[in-house]
Structure formats: structure tokens, C-alpha cells
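Contributing new records

If you add data, match the layout below exactly. Sequence lines come first and carry their own label; structure lines follow with theirs. Keep one chain per record. Anything else will be rejected by the validation script.
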Amino acid sequence: MTVFKNLRKRWRAGIVAVAAVGLGLSAVVYTQGASAATWPSATGTVKLTASKAVSGTLDGGLKRYVGSGALGGDSQEEGQDPLFVLADGAVLKNVIIGSPAADGVHCKGSCTIQNVWWENVGEDAATFKGGSSAKYTVTGGGAKSASDKVFQHNGGGTLTISSFDVSDFGKLYRSCGNCSTQYKRTVIVKNVTVAAPGKTLVGINTNFGDTATLSGITITGDSKKKISICDRFTGNKTGAEPTKTGSGPDGTFCKYTTANITYK
């Protein structure tokens, strides 16, 4: 049984070893409020001392990538460099991002992130920086130990997050509330498994026309429903703290119903 070093003590869950899955990898399942995903075991470790540029497709073969040297940060400090920089149209898949994770992955334009696992999120897991027509896809994989944001949307376009697992997090998704250049942003979150503790699934700026559509959301370990599903803000371009204006489904900006959220 593989036990990940970055599991936090407050995860009281028992750990049950399961048989090899998929590519024949051993894995562990976390229960009782921790992540319900089957996390893959790393096939090796790669240390990056500088951001790795990706154009085309990088298939990591489920190796664990970690930062070292100048990329050795695992804090929430702003301005860290990413481990991976994805060019417009690039694909990053079958990668485990360990700790230190620095600022994770940056997408310069449209990109695909497939079966990528963040064991301990640093500043952010991934940041999306494309223009207004960019399309970003995150499918499969998971993230845990994100004291703030998992996915940060600074550019424009549409981000689709599907079949993803998140646990022990601040926000799964945030449309930048105070970037100097603002956009209308769209996020689609579907078939995502969420494990408490966590604060917010989605945060959007209604004054810039953002929309969030959620479906097939399963939340575990949150019997008191403390995790907010969709928060609405008035964003700005000045760098000031954005103003929260509401939460919950409204049919216009936060598009979902109670039937789209399942608690276990």
C-alpha cells in the first residue's frame, strides 16, 4: 500500500488498500470524508529546476514531477513560477504533481489537462490565461491540500472540469476578481467528487457576465453543508478585494439546482 506523505493529520479516514487498476498500478482509497478517488502510484520522480514548456502532447507516464531549486516552493505565496507552461493547444496528461508544486500548470491558450493528479497544491493547481475564445479542458485526475484555489481563471474563454476529484481545499474554481484585464468567463463543472473540508466550489464575477453551470456534483463528509456551491462577486480591475454579492443558484449566473448536488 502506498501512503502519500502529504496527507494531513485531520484526515481521520481509514485507508484501505485496493487491487491494481487501469494500468496495473497500486492505489489507495480514502474514506470517511477524505478523498474517494483511486489515486495512482508514481512510476518515478522527475525534479524540475525551471518551468517545463509543453507544446503538442506531454504524456508523463504517471511520473511524479516536483519543483526543486528556484521551483522549490509549496506555499501560497503569489508570483511563483509554474512547473509546466502549456502553449496554445497543448495537452498534459498522465502526470502526478507532488510537493513542492510551486504554481502548478499555466495554460497560455486553449489546453487539455487529462488525468493529472496534484498531491499537495502549491499556489494554485492550474491557471488559465488564454483569450476570450480559449477553451480549456480538465478531465479526470484530482487535487488535494489546496489551502486556497485549485483552478484560477485569469484569462477569458471557457473552462470545463469533468470527472475530477477534489478534497481539503479552499476554492475549486475562481474567476479572477481583480485582474487588471477582465473577461466574461464561463465554467462548466460536471461529474465531480468533492470531499470536505472545503470552502467554495465556484466563485464568479456577475458584473463581467461570468456563468457557472454545475451538474453531477457529489459531496462527502459535509453533513452540515458548509461548502458553498457557487459564490457571486462584483469583480474589478484595480486589484482591490472583490465584493461578494450572493451565493446559490439563480438561474442566470449560477446555473444548477439542488438535484444537481448529492450529499453522502
